[in-house]
Design goal:
Layout lengths: L4 H12 L6 H5 L3 H12 L2 H17 L10 H20 L31 H4 L2 H13 L2 H12 L4 H8 L3 H21 L15
Length: 206
Amino acid sequence: MQPDILSERELIAEILAGKPERYYELIAPIERRIYFTAYEILRVQADAEDVAQEAILKAFRNLASFKGEARFSTWLFSITINEARQQLRKHREVSLDSPADHGSGGDEDYTPINLADWRELPLDTVLNKEMAAHLEQAIASLSLSYREVLVLRDIDGISTAEAAEALSISEANVKVRLLRARLMLRDYFVSHCLLPKSAPAGRGRR
């Protein structure tokens, strides 16, 4: 269980007061989530391990600058995402200065597939061993700005406000990007014939 804000502050105060060994208690509840966040962005295990380790070390080195206005985990997610972006820039896999990665998230002209029975991506359908590989490919197909939001909200499970803080964008932009990301995932499954494109006879839009 992740420490509450009060216990986080107490732990941080003790660490800064000369008990660095308590830092592990602070990061232990979210250490694996930090790695998986890096992995879902980078898609390379070794790079994700490097980024997660660097983010955790950077947070430790700069712990005195943490103001405590948000959760420590939100701050650490922000550091992780920035480190992952730098890794992508290093490999030149994505331009971090392109319009698609800023503002409202780009792809304003994206048009979702029109389903007779509209619904968001049915996670109970795709979250099983048989479909796991397809889900990984679908997430990897998203552009960086959408992938980041989807990972923070639907995989890490943090709130809209925390995601906005971690990404340094507005809550409105988080909501827009998340909706588009979910639609893109749904359409990926439809276009690959993994979900029906139209509803069974007799079922209309609700």
